[in-house]
Write a structure and sequence with these properties.
Helices cover 80% and strands 0% of the residues. It contains two helices and no strands.
């Protein structure tokens, strides 16, 4: 049974890898734009969450609950 499950996982991994390899150029460009967008927004979102905790809700950043 374990070997059968392992083969299923390998097939799924192979299918996922093949899907990425066969992806057309416009989709890669869209994925790149989405990645850069998240890369740009992530620091702001983290800072904003810390600011809300510290100034608005009068908490301490990094304090264990």
């Amino acid at each position: 049974m374990h070997r059968r499950r392992s083969r299923t996982v390998n097939r799924l991994e192979t299918t996922n890898v093949c899907s990425f390899v066969r992806t057309k150029r416009p989709i890669w460009i869209q994925l790149l734009v989405i990645f850069l967008n998240w890369l740009g927004w992530f620091p702001f979102l983290v800072f904003d969450a810390n600011w809300m905790c510290k100034d608005v809700y009068v908490g301490r950043v990094g304090r264990q609950l």
